[in-house]
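Hi! If you just cloned this repository, the fastest way to understand the data is to look at a raw example. We've pasted two of them here, unedited. The first protein comes first, obviously.
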Amino acid sequence: MKRYPVFVLILFVFLSSCSFNKETNYAMGETWSFIVFSDIQQGFGVYGALARQMARIEPGPDAAFCCGDIMLRPANEAEWESFHRYSLPITQNFPLRMARGNHEGNDPVSELVLRQQMEFPPEQFYYTYRTRDVLLIILDTEIAGQENSISGQQLAWLKQKLGDAEKDCCTNHVFVLMHRPLFPRGKYANTLMKQAEELHQMFLQYSKIRAVFNGHEHLFNHYIRDGLHYITTGGGGGVLTHGYGGNYNHFTKVSFYHDPFRINIKTIGIFHEVVDDFDLPAGR
């Protein structure tokens, strides 16, 4: 029997698995997806590898969303140049939007630079993004004087958008994205978002909310509270947080299928490996 060197067999298995990951989503009934990731903080080698894996996904994602902390230092021109260069596999194929993180800064100069570098509404850093029958609500946890909270005018705006979505027959699913978590599960576990329980109870009133995404903690965590899914996806390149589980570099893929009641979540690493894989309920 002919023998092959071990490295040849390993290469064959690797290439075969890559082909499977890229081509069989159609056969499994997947129709479209979007991407969520967070917390790059100068980890451009890792981020570049993740961006290339995002671009390999078939069918191509509708959009990608960063939950903040692209920056390590606010308004740093070199960091922004690197970010845009390493983001090309994404931006050449589908839109890239973001939620502001604490490392983007909230002083006037940092806010001016942020608006020059990324797309935001003219008056605030929170907004909605619609794709197909999905509404994404991107919140700002870094408003000066209101850090680590969703309050005041933004809270009133959020209630209005959620109420409108509940009544809109063209909106079947709502996802909420922000930088800081309501209920941190890692090293910030003792620093809940201000009014976290009140926000959680408010979210429970809206049946179309499928999940709440955040970054800030450099890990992956999936936390279910009263049936609502909270997902931390902070493995985008920054130094990982160890000791709490989920300490691996990744992005999160949210997939939709011919079956309208199926929504799948996968975390995908720098070698296109799937680490976490679970379905969300399509209704509550």
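Ok, and the second one:
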Amino acid sequence: MRAVAQERERNPERNRERYGPKAPGGDAAGGGCLAAPVRWVVLILVVPVRAVWDVLVAALKGLGRALLWLAERLVARPVVWLCRRVLAPLGRGVARVWRWLVVAPVAWVWRWLVVTPAAWLYANLMTPAGHGLRWLLHYLVVVPAIALHRHVLRPVGRGIAYAIDAAAAGLVWAWDRLVVAPLKLLWSYVLKPLGKGLLWVLRMLLTAVGWVLHMLLVPFLLLWRYVIAPVWPVAGRITRWFWNATARPLGRAVRSAWRTVRDAFAAARATARRTRMELRAALFGGPRNPAPGPARQPAGTAPADAAAPAVDLVKHGPERR
């Protein structure tokens, strides 16, 4: 309720527009049948919830203030008093004890036992020794090295550099005059014209070959397209008919004749071999040849009767033992 009152005080014009006097007949014109239920719902639900919310906000604010006051009284002030009255004096005392018992003795020892002897050693021993070493290095190392560089190494280095430059110039001149110039002349007056001539000849040859191929292929293509291609099926049929009707029977007849001749020659060779062996046996008394097998008969003929035994022309005496 307090929040509603504060809102009304902050926005009087808005409250006047919202809660100001209404024109007569406004409820009837603005939907009075719904205004009364809405007001009852607001009065029953919204106003109690808002009042409870305001009470909770006020209670939480009071509780927060109380907790802050307790924290300040029970925690912050004792901690501040402890730091000011106890920890700060204790820390200052510890710092003074550390300074007088640790830092001061260490500083005295560092000053009188380390720094002062080191300074005296540096001033009375190391500095003279350093000056002596510098003098020795200057007159025994630096001066001889400068003299060696000035009077020995520099002239020798310049002579070597001059010799290298002269040799490089000579090599460049020799390369230019003995290699580059002849190669340029060879390229300009020999290889380049020869390459152009070979290229021209090759171009002419290719042109001629192309022309010849064109002159040969074009008639062949025309002949193939307009003569051979149309005639080829008819020629194939004629060739097939000639092969089946003439060539194949003729081949079979030639093959049969060849087989007959081959069998006749084989029988003649067998008869000659048997006759030769029988003559050798009759003349020199060798062993008789065993009866040969049946001769090969031509194809399609019946086997002949067995051959009669050969007549022995020489009478043999008693067998030798």
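That's it. A detail worth noticing about the second one: Helices lie at 2-10, 12-19, 26-29, 32-284.
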